[in-house]
Design goal:
The complex is a heterodimer of chains A (314) and B (497). Chain A is 78% helix and 0% strand. Chain A contains twelve helices and no strands. The N and C termini of chain A lie close together (6 Å). The relative contact order of chain A is 0.15. Chain B contains 14 helices and 21 strands. Chain B has a seven-stranded mixed β-sheet, with helices on both faces. Chain B has a six-stranded mixed β-sheet with strand order 14-18-13-17-15-16. In chain B, strands 4-5-7-6 form a four-stranded antiparallel β-sheet, covered by helices on one side. In chain B, helix 8 runs antiparallel to helix 10, helix 9 runs antiparallel to helix 11 and helix 13 packs antiparallel against helix 14. Chain B starts with a helix and ends with a strand. Classes of the chains: A mainly alpha (314), B alpha+beta (497). Chains A and B meet through helix 2, helix 3, helix 5, helix 7 and helix 11 of A and helix 6 and helix 12 of B.
């Protein structure tokens, strides 16, 4: 187990190295000069050249990369061009929004998606199954941004129960913070909930057809025990695989909902930084997001062993 | 004897009527303003971005001269100035004006600001405009004289612009994130990605201003979200966020007031004058004749805005309407194209950036209009950074559309290296003359000649003036109708009692 974790950590380092090179090169190959974007159509080419020099962008790429990665290894991801604050603190402040948002959506996805899938599987080809799958079909079909707008129209504009967007921080207390995130979390989790429900349904159906389930039933195990102890626990491997991928997608999907609900999250930071060619921020965010996704994948792999004792890591 | 009481009665009645008509303003209160773009830093001397000016200019930082809500120059931190030749200027500073850090503003601060603007090391985005400065001399704490290398008729406008705000020397390093000035509001907080908060400057030098205690700028990039936030009551004012498609609906809604005004933003169909066939004046005129600008305005802006005929906007004191000089006339367009050797028209690529939706909407209308005279135009949408690089910097384009928001930017056509790549010796001569002509009447004549010449030579096609569109809750007063400078002056904004 320890060796496995160490191996995965080494793989993480290699992945991050390649990601760092890739993001560094891609953002610089992209047409569009940061200095020119800062100055816009009113700045002269001379002013842009001067600004490029003062930002150190006129030096060879390799020199820039080595300096950036050297500082990065010491925990310094540089300073944002547009915000004038350290990139690391900027990312951390944005995680205050994106992480709770993704977690809330994940809770919704798991708490509603798995029971819905099990419910549909145990009522296979009956009215309840068709209704559950039709509902989840809607979830798959409705884009998150549109669901977000509909939720705003209903709960903020018509009913006035929650604010239409924005986030004042956790300083005001847990509930005001959570209240700002409920609608976006629902809009974000809706699609993934539907996907997870459908995946769970297929996985449980497959297991329910297995011989050992028939044996359990023949032995007189109660239906609840059959479904939850025998069927669901054995169906969890594909469900956890999909859910792991979905966690990554929740973080990526939060970009669009952070725009709709004007939340100061990581996704909006990334989009704004790409548009403004705020290179240190783009590099920092991509590296951070890549490491998060790799870490989630490692955790999912480790979870396999917990769920299925037959899986060994040595 | 009998006349006096009746006069007094009339006077009293008039005063009463005036008093009744004037809204009673509340002192204090908070205001939440939506803006779509978060400022890229808060230093007006580091970037020309209008998103910075929208928050900081006139609210946190001010200049010696102010462009007022009618577009006229007004004495501000300088209570008066003096020049006989437009080459030597003396400014007399207002006494007792304090920066937000408590220190009094003095002539040495003004010298520091101007010297820093001229210094190439500081990368001031408007450095070219300060290059005429030869010498800045502090006469005493409240008097400063500026000597130029040659007369510059635009110098007072330069002193009035956003890059000329007066800040204390000791705060220069932190201006990007904590600007200090003399304005009616003190910068309080910037939660990156979410909001900027300004609070009332209790020691503001203008008596009884500002009215508001606290202003919060919220960054809401999506127009639909901004509209929802307005309707849900989460914001009080949408300053630069809503599209023209929302205007009719909001006008009918009794909770809001829609403020539509003029701006200095001229939406331009740029042509590359060094690329064939745009090198030919007949082709450029044919393109102009082929365009029904009313239709473009309807298609792109739902009819809000004003048709333009040249680069000079209606807020400019020298503006003349030349939009009828080359009218919509597709038959004439076809004839001119045939004369120029293109009886079957030609293929064209129109590069636009979807960052500004009006450019794409205008392009779609134009493509249809061009087709009617045989010009087969194709729209190519590119990202803003690419647009700046390809079109604006390298002039690697045939046609493009963009709004030129800068005031007094006719000089772009006197610069053969500007991305229009138009090189006309006569126009350059006229412009140069206008820059050193101090007499207002003569200068106006030069501007009229230049506007006519631009219309007749058609180095670009000026489509329309982008309207100012502000939506506010009923009860908010004092918002500027027009936008002669890219500021959102909140000093006189108040809630009606």
């Amino acid at each position: 187990m320890r060796r496995y974790v160490l191996r995965r950590l080494a793989a993480l380092a290699v992945t991050l190295f390649f990601v760092s090179v890739l993001v560094f090169v891609v953002i610089r190959v992209l047409p569009g000069d940061p200095a020119m974007i800062i100055l816009g159509t009113e700045g002269s080419p001379e002013a842009a050249a001067q600004l490029r020099r003062s930002m150190g962008l006129d030096r060879p790429l390799v020199v820039q990369y080595v300096e950036w990665i050297g500082r990065g290894l010491r925990g310094d991801l540089g300073r944002s061009i547009q915000y004038d604050v350290p990139v690391a603190s900027l990312i951390l402040s944005r995680m205050n929004v994106t992480l709770p948002l993704a977690l809330l959506a994940a809770v919704l996805m798991i708490a509603a998606g798995i029971p819905l899938g099990v419910f549909a599987a145990t009522r296979h080809r009956r009215a309840a199954d068709y209704i559950a799958m039709t509902v989840s079909q809607f979830g798959v079909a409705i884009p998150g941004f549109w669901a977000g707008l509909l939720l705003i129209l209903l709960f903020s504009v018509k009913l006035g129960w929650v604010r239409s967007g924005g986030f004042d921080g956790w300083g005001q207390g847990l509930w005001p913070g959570l209240r700002s995130l409920i609608l976006p979390a629902v809009a974000l989790g809706l699609f993934q909930l539907a996907v997870l429900a459908r995946t769970t349904r297929s996985a449980v159906l497959e297991v329910l057809a297995e011989e050992y389930v028939k044996t359990a039933r023949a032995k007189g195990v109660a239906e609840g025990g059959v479904v939850f102890r025998h069927a669901l626990s054995n169906a969890m491997i594909p469900v956890v695989t999909v859910a792991g991928v979905q966690l990554g997608q929740l973080i990526a999907g939060s970009i669009i909902l952070e725009i709709v609900f004007y939340l100061p999250g990581l996704g909006r930071l990334a989009i704004g930084a790409i548009g403004a060619r705020d290179l240190p921020v783009v590099q920092g965010v991509v590296l951070f997001a890549a490491s998060m996704i790799v870490v989630i994948n490692v955790l999912v792999d480790l979870l396999y062993g917990v769920l299925d004792p037959r899986i060994r890591y040595e | 004897m009998t006349l006096r009481p009746s006069l007094a009665a009339v006077g009293a009645a008039l005063a009463l009527a005036l008093f009744a008509a004037a809204p009673v303003l509340a002192q204090g209160g908070n205001l939440v303003v939506q803006v779509s773009t978060e400022p890229p830093g808060l230093d007006l001397t580091a970037s020309p971005a209008s998103a910075i000016a929208g928050v900081i200019f006139y609210n946190v930082q001010e200049a010696l001269i102010k462009v007022d809500r009618h577009g006229k120059l007004a004495p501000w931190l300088a209570e008066r100035w003096y020049t006989t030749d437009s080459k030597n200027y003396t400014f007399f500073l207002r006494k007792g004006v304090r920066f937000h850090n408590g220190r009094e503003m003095k002539a040495a601060d003004v010298k520091y600001v101007l010297d820093r603007a001229v210094n190439p090391e500081t990368t001031h985005p408007y450095r070219v405009q300060y290059e005429a400065i030869k010498d800045v001399i502090v006469k005493d704490d409240y008097t400063i004289s500026v000597t130029l290398k040659q007369p510059d008729a635009m110098f007072l406008w330069t002193v009035a612009r956003q890059g000329s705000v007066i800040y204390p020397k000791e705060a220069v390093e932190t201006m990007k994130s904590q600007p200090i000035g003399t304005g009616p509001f003190v910068f309080s907080d910037w939660v990156r990605g979410d909001r900027i908060v300004l609070t009332r400057n209790k020691d503001y030098w203008v008596k009884d201003l500002p009215h508001l205690d606290r202003v919060t700028y919220r960054f809401i990039p999506d127009a639909n979200s901004a509209l929802a936030a307005l309707k849900a009551g989460d914001i009080d004012v949408s300053a630069f966020g809503l599209g023209p498609e929302s205007v009719d609906e909001l006008k009918k809604d009794g909770r809001f007031q829609v403020i539509l005004g003029d701006t200095t933003n001229d939406v331009t169909l740029s042509l590359n004058n060094t690329k064939k066939p745009y090198t030919d004046k007949r082709v450029r005129l044919a393109i102009t004749h082929a365009i029904n600008k009313e239709e473009v305005l309807k298609g792109a802006m739902f009819g809000y805005g004003k048709i333009l005929g040249s680069n000079v906007d209606p807020l400019n004191p020298y503006f003349v309407d030349v939009s009828k000089r080359v009218p919509y006339d597709p038959a004439k367009a076809k004839k001119l194209l045939a004369e120029a050797g293109y009886p079957n028209g030609f293929d064209a690529v129109l590069k636009v950036s979807p960052q500004y939706s009006y450019t794409v909407r205008s392009a779609e209308v134009l493509v249809n209009q061009f087709a009617k005279v045989g010009i087969r135009a194709k729209i190519e949408q590119i990202e803003w950074g690419q647009w700046l690089s390809q079109v604006w910097k390298d002039a690697n384009y045939e046609m493009s559309i963009i709004g030129h928001a800068e005031a007094w930017d006719i000089g772009n056509f006197a610069n053969p290296n500007y991305y229009f790549r138009w090189d006309n010796a006569e126009f350059r001569r006229l412009y140069k003359e206008s820059e050193v002509t101090v007499d207002d009447k003569k200068r106006r004549e030069l501007y009229v000649t230049m506007q006519n010449m631009l219309a007749d030579e058609a180095p670009a096609v000026w489509l329309f003036m982008h309207p100012r569109l502000v939506v506010a809750k009923k009860g908010v007063t004092g918002i500027w109708k027009d936008l002669p400078v890219p500021s959102f002056d909140l000093s006189e904004v108040a809630w009606q009692k």
